[in-house]
Amino acid sequence: MKNKVQLIGRVGQDPEVKTLEGGKKLATVSIATNDVYYKENGDKVEQTEWHRVTAWGKTADIIEKYVTKGKEIGIEGKLTHRSYDDKNGEKRYVTEIVANEVLLLGK
User: Fold this and answer.
1) pTM score, two decimals?
2) How many CB atoms lie within 10 A of CB 25?
């Protein structure tokens, strides 16, 4: 078994890129995927899901240089879950995709 995620979607906002100590880069971006189905009465239903994607190193460099809001991209990576305590001491949970490949699609 392998933890592998592949998505194609549109970028919801310009990526956030940070350079950490030692020069390593971290890029964070949200992408939207759409699903369309029809109810029994024939009504069309469009459902949008938002996915938080993070990338490190060279993959983060590619995102920083070429990815902008509205661009269609494909990503491949793994699904991760983590938690942290916010500034009020409350525990927060995050599910995200750690991308190891980015494919630039469209215009």
Assistant:
1) 0.82
2) 17
Are 93 and 49 spatial neighbours (Cβ–Cβ below 8 Å)?
A: no
Element (H, E) at 13: none
Mean pLDDT (the chain, rounded): 94
53 phi/psi in degrees, rounded to 5 = -125, 135
Element (H, E) at 61: helix 57-66
Q: Which domain holds residue 53?
A: 5-104
Q: What is the CATH number of the domain that holds 22?
A: 2.40.50.140
CA-CA distance, 97 to 6, in Å (whole number)?
A: 9
Question: How many distinct structural domains can be found in the chain?
Answer: 1
